[in-house]
Amino acid sequence: MLTVVWVALFFSQLLLLVVIFFARPEVFRFDFSKSPLGENPLITIIFALLAISNLVLSFVLSKKYLNQAIVEQKTALVQTAMIVGCALCEAISLFGVVMAFAFSYQYFFLWVALGILGTILHFPKRDNLIAASYKG
């Protein structure tokens, strides 16, 4: 069950790239001679800080829920940990979508790649379920 949810969350991020490609194909014409900060450097920096803080927060909250699952012996909290972690990583990808749509920022794919990487790192582990399972 956890793997099915994880796969759905993973592919939803890939679909964001498809949406951007069909809605704003011009942002896929890369000109790497332009500054990585784009035309709005302050906004780019703010979005980068938000993305990094979301990534860190995803692991902090995931670890908190996993520890709580082990202490309380509730396997449902293992699923909560994964979903919260993946949702925060998906928000990073959504920041990239906003950058692509609102600012025609050509490096939007960095946010999407970071979100996908975070989601990959939140892949459910059997050890977490075993640790949170009831021990008689």
Describe the structure.
This protein has 136 residues and is mainly alpha-helical. It has one domain. The protein contains five helices and no strands. It has helices at 2-23, 41-72, 76-103, 108-121, 126-132. The longest helix is centred in the middle third of the chain and has 32 residues, at 41-72.
Order of helices and strands: HHHHH
Mean pLDDT: 91
Radius of gyration, in Å, reads 17 Å
Q: Structural class, from secondary structure content?
A: mainly alpha
Tell me the total number of β-strands. Answer: 0
Provide key terms for this protein.
5 helices, 136 residues, single chain, mainly alpha
Overview in brief:
The protein contains five helices and no strands. The longest helix has 32 residues.
Topology, element by element:
Blueprint: H1 2-23, H2 41-72, H3 76-103, H4 108-121, H5 126-132
